[in-house]
Design goal:
This protein is an all-alpha fold. It is 76% helix and 0% strand. It has three helices and no strands. The protein has helices spanning 7-23, 27-41, 49-70. It is elongated, with a radius of gyration of 13 Å. It starts with 6 loop residues before the first helix and ends with a helix. The model has no long low-confidence stretch (mean pLDDT 90).
Length: 71
């Protein structure tokens, strides 16, 4: 996606990958994609930063809950 998309479009692709991973139940993959999106958002003018941060917080909570269940 980095080669084929630019600017905010690239962020949207990363966010879509995160949402797809979340729907599959793969919170870790969703979290990784959101981290990539947030890192890219720091370099690209956009309006998505707050939404990405909110989604990252949600996936972190899911991962933390799963970790708590493992212990």
């Amino acid at each position: 996606s980095a080669r084929l998309s630019c600017g905010q479009e690239h962020l949207e692709v990363l966010e879509a990958r995160a949402r797809a991973a979340h729907r599959r139940g793969d919170a870790a993959a969703a979290h990784r994609q959101l981290e990539k999106a947030i890192a890219a958002a720091a370099r690209i003018p956009n309006v998505m930063g707050a939404r990405l941060a909110r989604q990252l917080t949600e996936t972190r909570a899911i991962l933390d809950a799963a970790t708590d269940l493992d212990h």
